Amino acid sequence: MKWFLLEEGSQVAERFLEELLAGQAIVLVPSSLFYEVANVLWVRRRDGLTESTSLAIWQRLTQLPVTVIEWHELFPEALSLSYQHDIAVYDAVFVRLAQLYGCDFITADQKLLQQLAGTYEWAKGL
Known about the structure:
The protein is mainly alpha-helical. Helices cover about 50% and strands about 10% of the residues. A two-stranded parallel ribbon has the order 1-2. Strands 3-4 form a two-stranded parallel ribbon.
């Protein structure tokens, strides 16, 4: 969301987006990401985010050159990770994706990072 809405950490996230668009980085996302983004857009309507702005963000998201990994490739291991680390399944899906593909997991969620601390060196803060 930091790529589309101005919030804390957006400037740092923007650098990752620039690398992605320049072909200097690969971004893997679980297919569940799209449900999460849609839900955030819906929730942000309370803050004044209009339907037309939400649809414009959705359009930009779906045009990004990201690699989408289907959820069935990430379960049931993601569910197990959620139990092991006491994290939400929708977060565990991202953790499992990084684990499975041997890549960094980058998040701005400090609570999640604390719950993973000392376990996965590839879990990094934005």
